[in-house]
Specification:
Length: 761
Amino acid sequence: MTKFGKGQGVGRLEDVRLLTGKGRYVDDIAPPTALYGYFLRSQIAHATITQLNLQAARAAKGVHLVVGADDLEAMDVVLGMSSTQVRARSGGKGAAPERPVLARGVVRHAGEAIALVVADSLALAVEAADLIQVDFEEREVITALVPGGADIHREAPGNLAFDYSLGDEAGVAAALEASAHRVALDVVHNRIIVASMEPRGCFAEWDGARLHLAVNGQGVWVQKTELARQLKLDPASVRVTNPDVGGGFGMKGMTYPEYIAIAAASRALARPVRWMSDRSEAMLTDNAGRDLIAHAEMGFDADHKITAFRVNIVSNLGAYNSQFAQMIQTELYSKVLTGVYDIKMAQMGVLGVYTNTTPVDAYRGAGRPEANLTIERVMDHAARVLGVDGFDLRIRNVIKAFPYPLISGAEVDCGDFANVLAVARTRADVAGFAARREASAARGLLRGLGIASYLEAILGSPVETARVVLDADGGATLYVGTQSNGQGHETVYAQMLSEQTGIDVALIRIVQGDSDAIPSGGGTGGSRSVTVQGTATKAAVGTLVAGLTEFLETDVGVKDVRFDGAVFSAPNSNMSLTMAEAAEWAREKDRADLLDISETIKLQAGSYPNGCHVVEVEIDPETGAMVMDRYTVVDDFGNLISPELVAGQVHGGIAQGFGQAVTELAVYDAQGQLLTGSFMDYALPRASDLPFFEIHHAPTITKTNPLGMKGCGEAGTVGSCGAIGNAVLDALSARGVKAVDMPFTPARLWHWLEEARAVAV
């Protein structure tokens, strides 16, 4: 192994297990004696429940329990789910209407759970659910992304959840008015269904004293806290575990009503109870992503330097506050509101609105893709209006002096954004684009080039703990507070620990996702995992080495013992002990206390990954069919810990960005019915849609953490949508198209071209 920090990758350790069917997902490990839970869900988007008769279902074959909201409350369950409220413009907080575990008198979106049936088999549970009698009095359905209409919640008149503002509103308005040039653009951020490879699921066990919930989430401590609160249990009597997880992307980072109901059922029956959503159920009920409209305005002086930037957003929360929803398009968006640009005068306003649709929460990037997409579409629009080159306009306006204060109150500590743009321009062969465009035109195709710089901000808890145990077999066990959802954590953590201790990667075991084994942790989200967990691991290894060094100096009687990452040695001595040998010596001397070390760290500031995406597309004007032909990325991730895993994360992020930009759109009709509730109607991107990606790095080393790294998990998504959108408009502008909105489906592209052709005639 190489020394820590050189960044030489190793093959993914988990791949053989996962790719040969040996993964242990939640539905694989449910107890064989577990009963099956099934949720009766509303087929109506908004209605009063006038009758809920559960008696026939309770009498059905194989049924053990049937409950509605009133029954759960009688079982001493707190019905209201937790949510975070943001600071409103008025100084108060956003609305906090109850989101019940099961619908309490009113259903507010199609798919909302009304009752839970627990039976010997899933088939019997489904049959019993069909016997439940529910009568409704329908209410007005609200799907428009504007405040107003019949109130969905009495706590939110006009369906306004919050009115948020950040920045000097009057100052920005004045600066815009005084600008030599001014541009404005509306940017639509289409609603996304996350569609993780593994749908949501869980099982619960109650032994009479303790509750165990196994759930495919992004960490165990949020679930533990909420289970204890809603089931009125001592937190010490709650254990939560995460087994292998088939994708989370932010959507699995919070508590859902099903987990509380399944746990309550297990406690009531003193039996294990399992639940796994099917694909259609998942598409109907998993938290959605994005779904906002941003109106952006930007001012420039006579030299094309940005004078002011203002964004006003209307954000769809769906029918309820999901756990973190109010934060996404407010506090998290604001982290990178101004992107990589030197903008002293900036302001954002956000109206959060409720609609009769599935709740919306975090999706890969959570606010930062939205912010970067908006400003990059505006920058491209400005370059077109001002008649200047898009690269030149960006380079003229990027931040050049660090540290740089943001209007959010945070500070970007380092970067070289102009260099990233220059490297991207060269690597993407922008100079050769004109010839490629001519070649496309000769084949009857429209070619466009799109640029998008991006600024990411790693988020989540800055606190993390690592526990390192040196085992008797010469290996080590590392207990981590994060949770892999497929990113390769087992590989990178084992690699990092191996590089710091000299222990073979094959002898390192990673323990994650168990609230009994790991007393605290921040889970996975916000590109935090390797940065915080790696820093905590480094601290634990430092304490471990210091303890063994002192022990060896005392026990052997030598001075100046040193550890070089592979062996302990001392000047003028023949000492040469590996970590395993030193551990065995300590074990023989009854110093096992030196071999089990925990350290908790807190990062004082986050880091700011950044980069530039350059994409070229070809569009057939006769059909609207689009091909993404070339894709070049230059990223600044600081030190690269595992280049192969970094590349994988960037690839996956771009693919998800392409999905949002080109193929994906969650559609509801006027009655609040999801029209895209299966893969027959909802188009995920395929491998054949994507070119080979060319990825380059232009790092600057952050000092906000001792690893000098910046996080990479969401960067591909943060930068991709803007680049693709700008490329599409660049291609279509040759035929007079002035504006485009995601997703760029063939039908939409063809329609815009036909509209422009009609105007030209």
